[in-house]
Amino acid sequence: MKIAKKLLMQLLLTFLSIILISGLPELIMNKNVSAYFEKVKTVFIEMLRFNEMTYLNQGIKRPFLEDIWEPYFYSLTILFGALFIAFCFAQVLTWGTLMLPNFLRRIIKNILTFLESLPDLLVFALVQMGIVLIYKKTGVLVSNVASLGAEDRIYIVPITCLMLLPFVYFYKMMILMTEEEMGKQYVETSLAKGMKRLYVLVFHVTRNTSEGIFHFSKSVLWFMISNLLLVEIIFNIHGITHYMYHDFRPEMLAACLILLVIPFFLIFALFEWTIMRYSKRSEAL
Amino acid sequence: MIAGLIGASLIFAIFFDSNIRQVQILYDDDMNMIGAAPFNPSLMFPMGTDALGYDTSMKVLQGAKFTLISVIAIGLLRVCTAFLFAIPLAMYTPDRLRKSLEQLLSSFYFVPLTIVAVFILTPVLWEQLRMPGWEEYFLYSYKARVGIEILVLTLLVVPLLGSLIANLIVSALKEDFIEGAKVLGASKWRVFSKHIMPHVLPNLVIVFCQQCVQVLVIFIHLGYFKLFFGGTDVDYNPYVADPPLSTTNEWSGLIGDYYNLLHANPAIALGPIIMFGICIYAFQLMAEGFQRHLDTRNVMGMKKRKIHQNGYADSPRINFEFLYKRGDYIDKKL
Fold this sequence. Notes:
The complex is a heterodimer.
Chain A: H1 2-22, H2 24-30, H3 33-48, E1 54-57, E2 60-63, H4 64-98, H5 102-116, H6 120-138, H7 156-182, H8 185-192, H9 197-234, H10 240-246, H11 250-284
Antiparallel strand pairs in A: 1-2
Chain B: H1 2-21, H2 56-91, H3 95-105, H4 113-125, E1 128-130, E2 135-137, H5 142-155, H6 158-173, H7 176-183, H8 188-224, E3 232-233, E4 245-246, H9 251-258, H10 266-319, H11 322-333
Antiparallel strand pairs in B: 1-2, 3-4
């Protein structure tokens, strides 16, 4: 119960900070603090009357809530798909890598440092060019490079684009953490007992690194939401950031950000709760 | 160990070197009949030229000083303000209050930086149009624009970074020697300046490098949204509007200018982005090299000490002959 209260507090505070931030352009434009608070107040009231919000679509006012759900879930699919795939790939590959001899691992780590520093825009450009190149060489269109309108949905390309860098981040982080964990004594003990290396890795080490990875994934997600905006604009995807970017009002930004935040918040809360329970139980044992 | 560090700083030094070489502005306007303006990368034009025949690599080099200096400035400012913010948080707030404050600050994890930066900076950096006279104007002067951009990019991360650094300080405070110092009567200030600072400072260098990487990434994003460092020059000509131009040739401006040419001629668009990539890599190598130096610094010292210890330890063992004899005995028996 205490945890639930704390989480609720945090959720409300997140909303509050979003609303406060969304008023900032007004402050900068008018150089006037009272106008800023006025704006914050209107945004706040607008948020309370969420179901009556409207947005401008080619000059016509339309109700916001009716139109937002489909692009919203579309964006969420892309985001979660990318996050999930990146995580799974990274985990499996980490297990694979940890079985390799030391010098190979060092090479892989160096390559990862290099990959990590690729700017995201470059990755998107390369993916686009790669698809075009494959099409030119073989005549096989892997996937559409850009979506053509609201009805046309593409999944593979944006998910790949969003997935690549988080995958590299996860992979590197997991290798580092797992290597650190492998130096601990319980690993030595279990290896000495004759347990297989892979078994120790999958069942013992992974469980202990999971908490660190979980905290790390927050910052990965932070980075991914920013990237989502870029991806949706580059590939002309009709997602939630479309509304955010084309109707550039504070109310709109606040509404979209809050909508984006809610599912992630819930998932993180769930994970945190499980981890807490888990670690408490093991402590009791 | 230091090879990584030297390598990274070398890459970095090359940038500053080329900066100096760059002060005279060089335009390579090719008037020969060999080829038309957008050249592909070759020996003469390391990154090709853009549609108007300007040498991209020269443009990149010219812009490098603005971008890199501002990146380093923002990185430094971020770390310094966050550090100032972290000191009272770590030293003077009780544990429970700090934990709940941390919870509060972690709500910033859900506010994506690029979106917010784009949103806040648009009125500042985008040239406005005053309707009656078709007058183009900026809301702020050039210096104010740069100042506001640096300020916004700094302040948005201070809460997260502050709690990160506060955690570093707290973990240093929990070490045993702090207890020892306190028992010996060290004041809070002395504990902080003599014991905490040497511990935290090297870590701050690493954090600084990471922050620089982050700033570079944000510059790329802002560049894509055509919000250039120091202001975007928008042409409101209703007939044939020029694309938005960067007022200086700094890199995010180059990205914004060239990215849409990706489909026409990839070489033009990729040049500046690749330069960004190299920079990010350099910062990352610096961080990694420094980390390795920190990790192995104590080990190197220990090795020397161990050798000394072995020197002492060896001599009495020779006198202790019992083991050897017994070993011989067993050997013979076998």
